[in-house]
Description:
InterPro entries: aa-tRNA-synt_IIb, aa-tRNA-synth_II, aa-tRNA-synth_II/BPL/LPL, Ser-tRNA-ligase_type_1, Ser-tRNA-synth_1_N, SerRS_1_N_sf, SerRS_core, tRNA-bd_arm. This protein is an alpha+beta fold. The protein has 2 domains: 4-106, Helix Hairpins (Orthogonal Bundle), CATH 1.10.287.40; 121-426, BirA Bifunctional Protein, domain 2. The chain contains 13 helices and 16 strands. Strands 1-9-10-11-14-8-7-2 form an 8-stranded mixed beta sheet. Strands 3-5-4 form a 3-stranded antiparallel beta sheet. Strands 6-12-13 form a 3-stranded mixed beta sheet, with no helix packed on it. The two termini are 52 Å apart.
Amino acid sequence: MLDITLLRDSPDEIVTMLHNRQQPEDEPKLRQLLEEDAERRKLVQESDELKSLRNRKSKEIAEIKKSGSGSADALILEMQSVGTAIAEMDSRLTALETSMEDILLALPNRLHPSVPVGRSAEENEIFGEPVSFTHPLDFPLKNHLELGKSLGILDFERGAKVSGAGFPVYVGKGARLERALINFMLDSHTEKHGYKEVFPPFMVNRESLRGTGQWPKFAGEVYHAPEDELYLIPTAEVPVTNLHRGELLETESLPISYAAYSACFRREAGSYGKETRGFLRVHQFNKVEMVKFTKPEDSYQALEDIRGHAEAILRALEIPYRVLLLCSGDISANAAKCYDIEVWSPAEEKYLEASSCSNFEDYQARRANIRFRRDGKSKPEFVHTLNGSGLATSRLMVSLMEHYQTPEGGILVPEALKPYTGFSEITPSA
């Protein structure tokens, strides 16, 4: 959520931001918000004046009745009229504040100056040089679906029977490999990168979705259990960020760094016409998430740290990847700056997103009311929140299986995962 003061003081900056994000349709909402804000402030002043008048006259009425010096009927009638006017103003204020909040919740975050201006994903910038590793792939390649089926480690057909398309089943050494990836990433982030592990709920209330920005803008992408008013999480970012919702943190506690595994659930309602085979687009997948709470002045270094921690996983696994700095037309509504990390799929012959690392500045903290105090006397400030996938296993598994396949149709286990799997290769006879 943006600061209303920023919108009042710099409306042209926000209009430019909306156009850079390819959201010019939101400009009328901004104008409406500013008009309603001006009306609200005027009404508050008038209401306060009437309430002050009512308080003074109420004392006069009490004195008249106490002294018996005359009739207070005229004053009582006058105050009844004032009370009616105040009630009407309060009703209008409630309506204005509701409308303003709806608009504030819908407006996207402002962009960091380093975010390139662009219309779509085609204008994202490659950040640094793509990272390559030598894997002997001089034989006819199988894609991850063919490998998974021939090795008996993935079963999308039975997953579809049980739940529907987009719900994979890992079998045997495939399940062990998936679990190894999760444990390896958690151990790396907690033992090497300074994160505290948490294991959050996989269902949250609406206030939690609101706090991180998934509600109401992305409500259509979230699975809902209406009887309990709970929602399946689209990412561990939601429950982990909301651990400190409504809290006032001491500056000595910052930065706070959490790493969390969770299953993630996404309806992918807008995926019609996109590539949906196998792991390329699923409704349930596993992910290790990194979440940070920092002081404002530290958040952009923290973003570089999170990106580096995600890259460290891929380097350890020797998975080829590249980093993209997202342009203004492709970045999510909540983020002020975002890096995507994409792994290379040799069978698909394209990069696949496996991680997104974002700085939200105080956008989420305002929604979730997460503040800190620099000392015992200073005014509370909003923290900056950040997160990054460290990493999502589905697309990562695509790249791992395809890069480590053998001419015999097996899959070698990366050296970093062997202590977690207990085996070094998945063979056709396994």
